[in-house]
């Protein structure tokens, strides 16, 4: 058994941080490059993938990597390799800065679309439901979210040019927030 195999076995049994801290969120929100890098590494990107598609130099990406290490989101290893210290689907605090940022800057932007493209869908349904039925629907939504997370994990082995960023709120479409798009080359 190689030493790297042993480390992978240890990591396999390790519990990852699943909920962000106030300190982490307060550091991420005001810094678009740090937030972008966090988003990318949580989704399986290599640390300097940000340099390929965005107006971020390797030097500009190095500092956020050190910040993410200090925030204990990643462990920065030699040769700028990283080890994720959080779950990929890190839950943002309901009353925290990231959720507030999402509500104020991303939610309306995401939903401001026709959702009529080939990789897009939108369903709005309404009606009166009993508390029992609402609870069952909520459990179904949680199952769907877990299915989405599992699909992300499975697709991470595909080349980057065969994957695109998606968001889902009972709707799904290829999309990138303007905060990140402004940093694109």
Main features:
185 residues; alpha+beta; 3-stranded antiparallel sheet; two-stranded parallel sheet; globular
Description:
With 185 residues, the chain is an alpha+beta fold. The chain has one domain. The chain is built from 8 helices and 7 strands, in the order αβααααβββαβαββα. It has helices at 3-12, 22-28, 32-42, 49-53, 58-70, 97-111, 131-155, 178-181; strands spanning 17-19, 74-77, 81-84, 86-91, 121-122, 166-168, 171-174. The strands form 3 sheets. A 3-stranded antiparallel β-sheet has the order 5-7-6, with no helix packed on it. It has a two-stranded parallel sheet with strand order 1-4. The chain is globular and about 55 Å long. The N and C termini lie far apart (44 Å).
Question: How would the blueprint of this fold be written?
Answer:
Blueprint: H1 3-12, E1 17-19, H2 22-28, H3 32-42, H4 49-53, H5 58-70, E2 74-77, E3 81-84, E4 86-91, H6 97-111, E5 121-122, H7 131-155, E6 166-168, E7 171-174, H8 178-181
**E-strand count:** 7
Average pLDDT for all residues: 84
The major beta sheet can be summarized as:
3 strands, antiparallel
Q: Domains counted in the coordinates: how many?
A: 1
Brief summary of the model shown:
The protein has helices at 3-12, 22-28, 32-42, 49-53, 58-70, 97-111, 131-155, 178-181, and strands at 17-19, 74-77, 81-84, 86-91, 121-122, 166-168, 171-174. The protein is of the alpha+beta class and 185 residues long.
């Amino acid at each position: 058994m190689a030493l790297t195999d042993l480390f992978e076995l240890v990591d396999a049994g390790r519990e990852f941080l699943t909920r962000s801290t106030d300190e982490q969120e307060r550091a991420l929100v005001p810094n678009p490059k740090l937030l972008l890098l966090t988003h990318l590494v949580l989704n399986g990107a290599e640390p300097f993938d940000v340099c390929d598609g965005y107006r971020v130099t390797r030097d500009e990406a190095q500092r956020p990597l050190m910040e993410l290490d200090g925030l204990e989101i990643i462990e920065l290893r030699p040769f700028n390799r990283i080890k994720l210290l959080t779950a990929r689907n890190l839950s943002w605090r309901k009353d925290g800065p990231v959720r507030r940022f999402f509500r104020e800057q991303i939610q309306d932007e995401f939903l401001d679309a026709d959702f009529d493209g080939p990789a897009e869908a939108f369903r709005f349904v309404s009606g009166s439901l009993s508390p029992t039925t609402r609870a069952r629907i909520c459990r179904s939504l949680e199952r769907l979210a877990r299915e989405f997370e599992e699909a992300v994990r499975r697709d991470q082995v595909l080349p980057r040019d065969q994957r695109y960023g998606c968001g889902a709120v009972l709707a799904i479409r290829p999309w990138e927030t303007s905060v990140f798009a402004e940093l694109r080359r």
